[in-house]
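Field reference: sequence -> structure
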Amino acid sequence: MSDEQSGSEKRRIEALEVVVRTLVADLERLRNEVASLRGTPPPALDPVIPATPRDPVVIRPEPLPRAVGPARTSRSQASASGDLEQLVGRYGTVVVATLSILLGLGVFLQWAITRGLLGPEVRVALGAVAALALTALGLWMRARRSARYGNALLAIALAIVHLDAWAAGPGLGIVAPAFALTVAAAASLALAALALREGEEFLFCLGLGGALLAPFVTSTGEGSVGQLLVFGGAVLAAAIVALRDPDWRAARQLLPLFAGWYMTTGVLWRTSEMSANSHFWPAALALVLSLVGLTLGAREVRRGLVKSLLSLLALAILMGDSGVHTPPWTAVAYALFGTVTAHALRRRTAAADEGPDTWYEVVGLPLLLLGSAVLVRGQIDLPQGAWIAGAWAALTAVFLFIDDASHRARHLTVILTAAVVASVALFHDRELARIVAFAFVALAGVFTLERERGPSLLLPILLGLGLATLRAVMLYDHRAHWSYTPFLNDVSLAAAVVVIGYALQSWLVPRTLGAPDVKQGPWSAPETLTALRLLGPVAAFLWARQELAGAFSSDIATFLLISYYAVTGVGTILLGRSRGVSGLRQAGLVLSLYAAVKVVLESSDFDRIGLRVGSYLVVGAFLLGVGYLYRGGAPTVASDA
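Structure field:
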């Protein structure tokens, strides 16, 4: 055989092998799709070894046809439809079945009770028999038929155990409530152990939801909120301990939701016989669950779970406020313990390398809990609010010294924000002192930001300046017109301090945040830095305008405003031309034209001819200056760069 014939034979064999491999791959894919629709594992495919042809056969392999768009779309739609069908058939039906069985048992018990057909002991015995029967059936299904379906039956059986324990204890009084709750807690631990052993998140969520639903199914309106919260706390604590798999995202999200459900029920379940301290029992539940998660929760799920529970703690403190009968220091104690827990969470997770971003633990949670503490009974407007804020500042100062330098800026953010809260409470009856205090806290934040280079310090800066501006505007609105000398009264001086704060902020903060050694983020965007630079000039402009608006008399105030707009407009144009900023030039041009419009509309009402003529002359002179500046046209765009 010549070399040419040998090469041709080799090419034909290679082409045949390509065709066979393609057919095998297509067959394997089809078998996998059929197996996925049936819910069974795909059958093994025997390897196919292509035989070598003896006779030379001319094979011209052509490119395999690709699936066109509609066919591929129909297959994907069929696959999606099959997945949805499997999801509903496998999980949805079990959920509905669980709820139906629990509700059916509850309705049956209520019906039997109202007709006196079943005594308390018989009812409890029937519940135990039902739980044992479902347990046996579930174990049989796990061993013979379907482990997943058997697990669902076991979850229903455990939920009935909870229901039976609740009925035997607080519901019917057959056994002591403490014993019934102990049985319920033990059943919860058994459920958690089963879910942990099987590694099935759905079983875990199903059993936990059924257990927490059990008291509500057979509730007769009796019992106490304390017993309900203890029961829920035992179940949830067991679930927190059992939750170990970091991939169980649904379970991690459901646990805080279940806790919030019980806390909300505890808040709404208030009676006249309840003591004032019992209004904070839902907050106690959130705090206890947070401590359980901190100390016993798995490292992989601890951080997110405890943060969610501490957020619920702040909400529960606010919901527990019932007015004059609420002891405020109880709320402060819960919030303070929650803050310590947040710091402990951060230090423990940082040691375990569970995420470097701890802003919420260092800043968000402490300030959220501080806000909940001072808002109870309106303590933020009372002197004790300053003591509460001081306690938070002192606690944060402890961690400021024991933590590493990477958290200094965030700790200082909490301390300065607490100072803002203290200023609200300390000067609640001295408005001018409160405005100055706000401004000084903001100034302290500006200088601290320049030193520490922490963007979180923007919070106390903007908060202090914003509150100072709001209170100053309120004073200006209540000040009588034509009865003060502009810039030379106590309100004007307090507002001047605020303007100085804005000016220093506009000078130092953008320069600091735009530096290369500061962590980049939304605060370092050019638009943000430009807005921060403009705060100072805008605040100064509005302050002067407000001072002139009510000075001396109506005619003089209008004349001063017209002159102010004209002078400011020309000055802004000159500044924009010297700095090459088109926005400043355009703003100055608008102000100059607004002065002209104002003089035409309002100067005719002047009683004094001198003011009327002076207004026209001042505006005309400055507009001539504007025209002179634009005599050669507006500067080019290149000069604006």
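Note: Residues 430-552 form one domain.
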